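Query protein
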Amino acid sequence: MPFCTLLALPYQADPARYFDRIRQAPGAVLLDSGRPHAGRGRFDLLSAWPLATLQPGPQEHGEVFFERARQALASLGPAELPSGNPLPFAGGLIGYLAYDFGRHLAPLPQPNPDDLQLPSATLGLYAWALISDHHARSSTLVLHPALPAAEGKRLAELFQSPAAPAPARFHLTAALASDVDATQYRQAFEQVQAYIAAGDCYQVNLTRRFSGQCQGDPWVAYQHLRQVCPVPFSGYLHLAGGITLLSHSPERFIAVHGRRVEARPIKGTRPRGHTPAEDHAYAEQLLASPKDRAENLMIVDLLRNDLGRNCRVGSVRVPELFALESYPNVHHMVSSVEGELATGKDALDLLAGSFPGGSITGAPKIRAMQIIDEVEPSPRAIYCGSLLYLDVRGEMDSSIAIRTLLVKGERIHCWGGGAVVADSNCQAEFDESFYKVQVLLEALAELPG
C-alpha cells in the first residue's frame, strides 16, 4: 500500500495563518475546529486546487452521483498514513451537500423558485491537505502519492514562505432581515400544527431566512464570526460563481472512523443568560423540559433507523442521551448514536440512507420535508445540508450546516429554525428561530464600513 508524504510545518493554532495564502485559489476550502477559541475540536483541514470537481446532474439520482464519487476516489488511488498517525485525511473528497440534495434521494415536490442557484452538491477531489492537530500541536502537509512531486514542492515552499496578507474589509450595506414576518410565520406554524393533529407527522423543523446586502471580502466576515462564535464544525468554502459559504456549526452529522459510525444530533435550545444564575437556570430548564426531551428522542429514534440501514444488525446504540453542550449564544441538548458499518457498506451508503439529517427536517423525515416545501417560501440552499470530507481510506466526518451563511455577489443570507411539535408555542418558536442566529447578525453589524 503506498503511503502519503508528510511534511512538518510550524504549528499554527489559528488556521488563518495558512489559509490566507490560498483562500482565493480555485476550490479553496477550510474545515475548521474553531481553535484556539473553541475547546472541543481537534483538527483543522485546508486545501485548494482540486484535481476534479463533481456536481450532480439535474435529474441524477443521489446514489448514481455517489457512485461517481466512489469512482473519483478510486481514480486518485489508495494511500495510507504511517501506523498510529491520527490525521483524518489522506487525500480524497471535500465539499458540501446542500439541503436540496435530498431531492436526489427522495420523492419530493417541485421546489419553490430558487433565487440563490447554489448547486445541490459540490465535491472536490484533493490530492493534498494541510492539517493542524491541536492536541499534538502540530501542522502537517499531507501529500497523496498521486500528487506530482513538483506540485508538492510548490506547496511546501508556499506554506513556508513569509505571508503578507492583503488588507481587506467587509461590511453590511443593508442589515439582514427575515423573509417572513410574524403573521406569515404564524400561518406556516398553524399549517404544520394541522398536519401534526391529522397524524401526518410528529415534528417539523420550521425555518425562516434572513437576507441583507454586503460589500467586501467574506473571509474578513468569517474570521470575525469565528471569534465571537467558536464552534467545532466551522468551515469556509470559496466556490465558483462568486459564492462563498461561511459555516459556524456546532453539530456533527455523521462520522466514520475505521468501521465505527457516530452521529450527534442536536435538538433542544435555550439562550445563554446575562448572569451566571440566569445562564444556569436556562440550562437546567432545557435539561428538564419534557417537550425538548421528547423532540430529541424522536430524532434519536429517526437516526437509529437511518443508520441501521447500513450498519451491522444489533450494532446501533445510544451511548449518550440528553447531554448539555453550551456555546456563546445558546445551550443545546445533544445525544449520540453509534453503530458499526455492515459488510459491503461504506460512508457514501450511510449518506445515501441518512441525508439530510433528521434533526433539521422532522419525523417522519420524507413527510416532514414535503411539508417544509409547502410552508417555507424560500430555498434552504446550504442550510441544513452538510460540509464534509471523505478520504481514500473511507474516513469521513460531516456537519449539519446550521449557523451558516451564503454570500453571493453583494447579497448575504442565513437561516434560523426550530422543531415544531404538538405542544409548541408559536411565539416561542418564532423567537428561537431568531436567537439561534442573533450572535451572527449582531457580529456582522459590528464590522466597520
User: Anything to note?
Assistant: The mean pLDDT is 94. The longest strand covers residues 203-216. The radius of gyration is 21 Å.
